[in-house]
Sequence to fold (552 residues):
Amino acid sequence: MRRCDDVKNLKEADVGLSSHPHILTSSHPPAFILLAPQMGENIGAVARAMSNFGLSDLRIVAPRDGWPNPAAEAMAAHGEHLIKNALVVDTLGEALTDITTLYATTPRQDVLGKPVFSPGEVMQTNITLQGERAGVAILFGPERAGLSNEDIVLCDGIISIPVSAENPSLNIAQAAVVIAYEWFINSRKSGNPEISGVSHHLKMDPRFRGDVSTKAELEGLFDHAKILLDRVNYFREPGKTKLMWQHMRSIWVKSELTSQEVRTLRGMVRAILRLL
Amino acid sequence: MRRCDDVKNLKEADVGLSSHPHILTSSHPPAFILLAPQMGENIGAVARAMSNFGLSDLRIVAPRDGWPNPAAEAMAAHGEHLIKNALVVDTLGEALTDITTLYATTPRQDVLGKPVFSPGEVMQTNITLQGERAGVAILFGPERAGLSNEDIVLCDGIISIPVSAENPSLNIAQAAVVIAYEWFINSRKSGNPEISGVSHHLKMDPRFRGDVSTKAELEGLFDHAKILLDRVNYFREPGKTKLMWQHMRSIWVKSELTSQEVRTLRGMVRAILRLL
Fold:
């Protein structure tokens, strides 16, 4: 697995210091994260689409056929630099160290009570007159199976691309085209007074206050809390553990905890564990 | 060249009777016309994208590798019925017998003074609260060369998909995804008061009066007029003939002639020719 130089820096950032530039300043194009992609051709086609619409932050988690993948490079056309600079990692967590807002692409709608947005709504939510929110990523599942509940649990929302009921199955690269295109046209009109209403609304959004926790910080809290809950035998029925734990994490994701709040909660967990 | 049953009917309609349902009633999804497409895979990918977004009227003019094309069927996935039902013809004119409003997809902007629209603008122009304009088609050029001035001359406007300046080269199927997606999201909100302003504006548009000429009728006029102009030696400088003729046709396209006006003009041409 090849990794770009950024990984080490990202990991260092994850250890303790959290200096995430969540503030709305100029342009912060979203990252596209491909989880366990199967075909190199599809990875390449996603890179090409991203490049066509001005995106460059491609992250690939556990690609089926290893890395590098010549089929991906061949298909990327003029987007091959995205393939060369892609962050390639083994686990989703490693791709999320600087991500504060994560959207799942899935045709499924009613998953863990997550809010559902159209591609245009997602972009209008994250791009305002003042600029663009940093730390946003779009998560794409493996071609055949798509995203599981386990993957979606960390997401703040679901992107649902409107499609015909007669043929709703979108290829991963086609989905990437639509989302990248919506980002591009919305980022171009970010100086447009039309969306100032949205902008006003977003000032109220806690994720815009500038200190929201990263997904990696949240995962650290989850791991820590799981140790505690296992110790006190909270999950008594093994058959229900997974579902209970998914719902619990979903609640924490929805709470939009700040980095400070995550540290406070972990301190609490640590204090309880010490007494057990 | 295989042709579907519709061709014969279309040709009969072209002979004289013009009963084109240009009136705005419910849904009239646009046709996609592929001019001299090269790769079967691309034809299939366009069919798949159309099908994903509820479009079905695919027309193919002079495909490089003949027809049927197994690569097109394989790539179409659940859109294979579009491939099977496609209208496949030898000349662009044959694909236009019921088309009144034609848009060229090209990255070129300043062609023959044609107005340039974004994909969203095109769809908002043709879909209103009252329904959708019939006889609209989107023209895609061959992969390598794209559309020539000769192809664009018949078009009422250019669709320009906003792309990054660093990698502006969109694959034909990616362009089809964006345009089909824009049609789908706009057709779904056709009952939405947001676009009523557009709707009001369009009532003034002569193309909505219900009697605009088809592209085939216009071509009939052009051919007729060309005979007359050649007879009177209008094009004295052979080197300039093509350009002069392109501009003249462009003017007639812009005039948005009704079927009746085309017949009147052809009657005039016929009368002059009789005296020569």
Notes: Confidence is low (pLDDT under 50) at residues 1-25, 192-209 of chain A.
